[in-house]
Write a structure and sequence with these properties.
This protein has 91 residues and is an all-alpha fold. The chain folds into 2 domains: 1-36; 48-86. It has helices at residues 7-35, 50-75. The protein starts with 6 loop residues before the first helix and ends in a 16-residue tail after the last helix. The mean pLDDT is 79.
Length: 91
């Protein structure tokens, strides 16, 4: 069974799609305008925040503990690894 559409039904389908696209574009424009309100600080370009530094330190500390355990077990001797410091160096 073939379903045939007349021109008014086809036009209404295209109009519905156009309305959905217009609503999506308006929503994206509103989000874009709301999220670009923060000024960029060029003096801190390339620097990481304290929260990021804490996360990096936590990951490195976990790595050091796992390395201590696994390498010590593999070598069958006492082996210690500890995170000395975490800092950002400019180059």
């Amino acid at each position: 069974m073939e379903k045939q559409l007349d021109q008014s039904q086809i036009d209404s389908m295209f109009a519905g799609v156009r309305e959905e696209e217009a609503c999506k574009q308006a929503a994206h424009a509103a989000v874009d305008q709301a999220s670009v309100r923060e000024r960029y600080n060029f003096s801190r370009a390339g620097q990481i925040s304290n929260e990021q530094l804490q996360a990096i330190s936590a990951v490195n500390d976990l790595f050091a503990r796992n390395l201590t355990h696994n390498l010590g077990a593999w070598l069958r001797t006492r082996f210690d690894v500890a995170l000395a410091s975490a800092e950002q160096m400019m180059y």
